[in-house]
Amino acid sequence: MRIKMPGSRVHIRLFERVATTNDTYDIFDVGVDFADGDNIQKIDSIAIGGSFASAKAAIKKMDDEQAAKEAKASEPVAEPVAATPAA
Domain of 48? Predict the structure, then answer.
């Protein structure tokens, strides 16, 4: 996510995904980007990376549970048939 600082050419970068060729790890950066006096784009940031296997597993489990709830809620419910008196 990038947030522009009002009245400046500075953007705050919060957990911007860094493109990599290895999908084993996810890398994010936190910092600022700005144009210097020559209008050259510069980035000052700190990269944070990892496999985040436990977080990914927990998120997948929560997504699966939510999908199961939504599937159950969308199932048609059979309504009881009212008995009619015999004539």
Answer: 2-72
The total domain count for the chain is 1
Q: Strand pairing partners for 41?
A: 35
Residue 25 has pLDDT above 70, yes or no: yes
How far apart (Å, rounded) are the C-alpha atoms in residues 47 and 35?
Answer: 20
How far apart are alpha carbons 51 and 24 in whole angstroms?
6
Confirm whether pTM is higher than 0.70: no
In a domain, 78, yes or no: no
- The answer to whether residue 80 is domain-embedded is no
Render pLDDT for 37-59 as a digit per residue (tens, 0 to 9). 777 889 899 999 999 999 999 99
